TrEMBL record:
<keyword id="KW-0173">Coenzyme A biosynthesis</keyword>
<dbReference type="GO" id="GO:0005737">
    <property type="term" value="C:cytoplasm"/>
</dbReference>
<keyword id="KW-0963">Cytoplasm</keyword>
<comment type="similarity">
    <text>Belongs to the CoaE family.</text>
</comment>
<dbReference type="GO" id="GO:0005524">
    <property type="term" value="F:ATP binding"/>
</dbReference>
<keyword id="KW-0547">Nucleotide-binding</keyword>
<keyword id="KW-0067">ATP-binding</keyword>
<keyword id="KW-0418">Kinase</keyword>
<dbReference type="Pfam" id="PF01121">
    <property type="entry name" value="CoaE"/>
</dbReference>
<feature type="binding site">
    <location>
        <begin position="12"/>
        <end position="17"/>
    </location>
    <ligand>
        <name>ATP</name>
    </ligand>
</feature>
<dbReference type="GO" id="GO:0004140">
    <property type="term" value="F:dephospho-CoA kinase activity"/>
</dbReference>
<comment type="pathway">
    <text>Cofactor biosynthesis; coenzyme A biosynthesis; CoA from (R)-pantothenate: step 5/5.</text>
</comment>
<dbReference type="GO" id="GO:0015937">
    <property type="term" value="P:coenzyme A biosynthetic process"/>
</dbReference>
<comment type="function">
    <text>Catalyzes the phosphorylation of the 3'-hydroxyl group of dephosphocoenzyme A to form coenzyme A.</text>
</comment>
<keyword id="KW-0808">Transferase</keyword>
<protein>
    <recommendedName>
        <fullName>Dephospho-CoA kinase</fullName>
        <ecNumber>2.7.1.24</ecNumber>
    </recommendedName>
</protein>
<dbReference type="InterPro" id="IPR001977">
    <property type="entry name" value="Depp_CoAkinase"/>
</dbReference>
Length: 203
């Protein structure tokens, strides 16, 4: 049987860093952000729906979504963010379930669902265990500003658009402390991998 892990945290706390380790172990990973990108590719019905809702300006000359502009809009306006979530989340969830069930049928012992908004979207029923990757707020802010080249104010708005990491830690079945080096984070992944293999066997 498969052990389905919901990997979450908050923006820039280190989910992709953890995913990198599990991918080396050939663990299949379903990436909600990636699915969100695929369903708005040019020609897909969701892109037309976004254009109808947010206006022509969110489409670039080459026909693709202007992700930077849409980010600006939704992280500065709670109502617009809700509108976007209501439009996109059902389609993202449907695709996540299809891919998860495919891997379960294949008999994969561990399947990771990398879903930034797992708690906010009330999606814990999709998984057997929840793994929360956390950092201090200061580290999160510093890494987010650096990675996305954002001002402190912009980065703080993005962090505020998601639920509290402290609450998520309390609700998690497993946690990874990503405050120190990447190597130390990888050691924690290694320990969890053994647990997850036996969780898969015991189901
Ligand atoms: C707003 C968009 C266009 C920005 O694209 P961009 O390439 O700049 O960022 P990317 O997609 O890599 O997202 C980066 C991070 O932003 C955070 N984030 C994205 N959307 C949201 C949202 N609606 N609410 C809160 N946080 C969000 C997540 O932590 C995500 O990991 C894009 O994130 C999007 O389409 N969001 C809506 C879909 C969604 O909710 N995705 C989150 C996973 S379900
Ligand atoms: N232990 C670490 N030490 C130093 N830098 C780190 C560490 N872990 C992650 N980073 C860096 O912090 C940034 C955020 O990490 P990562 O992309 O893994 O977060 P994420 O949770 O996947 O982000 P998002 O929510 O946007 O998808 C990246 O630039 C990454 O290289």
């Amino acid at each position: 049987m498969s052990c389905v892990i919901g990997l979450t945290g908050s923006i820039a706390t280190g989910k992709s860093t953890v995913v990198d380790w599990f991918k080396i172990k050939q663990v299949p990973v379903i990436d909600a952000d990636q699915i969100a990108r695929e369903i708005v590719e040019p020609g897909r019905p969701m892109l037309s729906r976004l254009k109808e809702t947010f206006g022509e300006m969110i489409i670039q000359k080459d026909g693709s979504l202007d992700r930077a502009l849409l980010s600006q809009l939704i992280f500065n306006d709670e109502t617009l963010r809700q509108t976007l979530d209501n439009l996109m989340h059902p389609a993202i969830i449907e695709e996540i379930i299809t891919r998860r069930d495919h891997y379960i049928e294949q008999g994969e012992p561990i399947i990771i669902l990398d879903i930034p908004l797992l708690f906010e979207g009330d999606l814990t029923d999709l998984v057997d265990r929840v793994l929360v990757v956390y950092t201090t707020q200061a580290k999160q802010l510093q890494r987010l500003m650096k990675r996305n080249d954002l001002s402190e104010q912009e980065a703080k708005k993005r962090i505020k658009a998601q639920g509290s990491i402290e609450k998520k830690k309390q609700l998690a079945t497993d946690v990874i402390d990503n405050n120190r080096s990447v190597e130390e984070t990888y050691l924690q992944c290694d320990a969890l991998y053994d647990n997850y293999m036996s969780c898969g066997e015991n189901q």
